[in-house]
Amino acid sequence: MAQLITAIDDIAATLQRTDDEPLVIATYLPVGNEPGAHTPGGFIPSLLAALDERIPCRIVIPRVEDKRQLSWHPWSPDSLVTTSFGIREPDERSTPIPFDTVDLAIVPALAYDVAGYRLGQGGGYYDCALAARRSSRQSSGQSSTFRTIGLVHPHEILPAVTHDDWDVQLTTVVTPLGRHRFPGS
What we know:
Blueprint: H1 2-14, E1 23-26, H2 43-52, E2 57-64, E3 70-74, E4 80-82, E5 88-90, E6 104-107, E7 111-113, E8 118-119, H3 125-139, E9 147-151, E10 157-158, E11 172-175, E12 178-181
Parallel strand pairs: 1-2, 1-6, 6-9, 7-10, 9-11
Antiparallel strand pairs: 2-3, 4-5, 7-8, 11-12
Binding site for ATP: 118-126
Protein name: 5-formyltetrahydrofolate cyclo-ligase
Cofactor: Mg(2+)
């Protein structure tokens, strides 16, 4: 958790926000052996507690929609449901927020490579969300201040993973042992 907090601190310092604007962080709820899944007190509550004093932030989490789409909803432990896949996500009554309001996304993966590309679970949900975010910023002519952090175990960083033209190179990959930044992203 310490390496993740340091990476978020570094990224927050580069974003052009006013002090009263919360940093909007999209993240997932880790499961199984994913980093953060066994954080005492829970991953998101621990993340909020660690950031709260220094960086005002707002956490949003994904809900799986049709056609490989994710919608993003404010974190509320009281509005979570468990899907047929055993994943917890916001229930259908939760109001989504536009993904283009997110400053930073913490992205899950099975592995990352040394260039910052991710190997996902194969559904393409995050690939679609990240690619859409990238293309919406480029088509509007805005420079991107959007950042991404991959969170993995040290043995899950590989020399290379297969990636396609639509895959988005991440800004940073974090392990419990350190951070890897990718200047080309």
